[in-house]
Amino acid sequence: MAETLTAQPAPLGFDPQELMVKYTQERAKRLRQDGMDQYQELKGAFNRLDQDTFASTSSRREPLNKDVTVLIIGGGYGGLLAAANLAKKGISDVMIVEKGAGFGGTWYWNQYPGARCDVESYVYLPLLEELGYTPKEKYVAGPDILQHVELIAKKYQLKGKALFQTIVRSTTWNDAENHWNIKTDHGDDLRARYVVAATGILHKPKLPGVPGIETFKGESFHTTHWNYDVTGRSLEKLANMRVANIGTGATSIQTIPILGEKAKQLYVFQRTPASVNVRNNRPTPPDFESSCTPGWQQDRMKNFNAIITGLPFEKDLVDDGWTDNKAMSFLSAEEKRDPATVGQVMMVSDMAKMERIRARVDELVEDKETAEKLKPWYSSMCKRPCFHDEYLQMFNRPNVTLVDTDGKGVERITENGIIANGVEYPVDLIVYASGFYISGGQISQTSGVEIVGRSGVPLAQQWDEVGAKTLFGVHIPDFPNFFTVNTTQAGVAANFMWTLATAGRQIGYVVSECEKRGIRVAEADEAAAARWTEAIVASSKPMFQFFTTCTPSYYNGEQKMTKHMEKLGTYGAGANAWGQLLEDWRAKDDLEGLKIIKKTDTETDAEA
């Protein structure tokens, strides 16, 4: 972020320099030395908060001893899209290992009331054309998303290929046999020629670093393990309960309006206000499907990616809160070639957008003091933007109290309630809407899977010592026949489904080509991965520089930059460019950048 902004030619209604000072002051309030270490895992004393509240069957079963062609770790959208693309290429011998009792990944765990996608469903839900499925609303609810997940599993016959309620503990490359040995928490002994780590980025919940959580005598749960036995399926049991909601991020924006309506009393504990723009959800028009031409979803996805990353566009196909910042479209071709002009115009345009969002708070919240506390003072992309049409109005209800901690957070949990700003608030139920540990590329650390490649050195150790190194964000040197679906060194957009779908196509292609060409081992070439990593570091510098100016959040590791973080960056040219690069790479059909070992003439598939 530039330290000095020159005067703008048109009246803005605000002073960019003054706004920069305000942003810096609010950021300083929230800085902590412990960064992500401030949070606590759902284990040990908090293990009771990590129970699967949605499973209807027992997880007990006999251990398996089995060989498969491809083993996929994770049954969320990343794993399903990898499996779907493999199926399209004729690879059907697949096993999906999933911790939950069903498919869905993050959406399996996020079955809290009010859950919806925050990206338009027509670009978020993948494979709509292949499935012949049209979402009912512009932003569909959690149950509809899980229904869509099941449609994918049914179409590609994945249900019988899943090991649910199972956690992969380790996957180790056997160089003599050219396969992976996989161990699970059920004692399974599995072997696979290929492994796909589709472990996701939002799957490991965290608790706030607050003393006394274990002492609370009332009910409590994390939003990823919503306990409907406590609240009632329709939340009818909240009518006589005093409820505390800790957190005001993307989850809370959706739960708080419902909690406020149902609870006897709701206390919302806020450290940093969310940026809440208009959602304007609405039913899908009756003629939507008939108006679409073949390839429409891919075109719509690309259009969405282009607009929110400042690329030229002809028409805004999505037209929502994500795409309403169109500063780039007003620049001349000459101005677009000037990085200084582009950067300044985009920044001032973002400030204007945030001014509108803060003005919306004044329009909707009746109490002026409460309204001031609900205003976000940071750039729009410093935290995940939120969209909702009832959240702000909820603070007009007499039974809803905002407890703003001015950046400090909750002080302590007691037997009977919560202490914040020196005041104890007695409550009957605490809802921890405190989010997730974000992987930051450290696949092993957040998934809990020890991944050991050809050298015998675990992936976590390698990346801790020298930093991440991949080819295209999918292939990793020293890890043969291994693929990762993640943000690290990949092309990432606000619509993460683009990343998952693009990686899935890459995985389907490489595995099928290996099988077709008699290749027993394919891994990223060290030199090719080094070149890709160097390009990532160079292109992601502006992003990391921007995030250092932001309020602490999972986007920037709570402002504690870790060792080798620059190698965990994303593809700087953007999600569309990354997708095109991989498409062009596959079109060349030469597997450039992969180190290949073919089967010998005497080897069979079983021996290779």
UniProtKB/TrEMBL annotation:
InterPro entries: FAD-binding_Monooxygenases, FAD/NAD-bd_sf. One of its GO terms (molecular function) is monooxygenase activity. Pfam families: Pyr_redox_3. The keyword RNA-binding does not apply. Keywords: FAD, Flavoprotein, Monooxygenase, NADP, Oxidoreductase. Its cofactor is FAD. Belongs to the FAD-binding monooxygenase family. PANTHER family: BLR3857 PROTEIN (PTHR43098:SF4), L-ORNITHINE N(5)-MONOOXYGENASE-RELATED (PTHR43098). This is FAD/NAD(P)-binding domain-containing protein. It comes from Eremomyces bilateralis CBS 781.70.
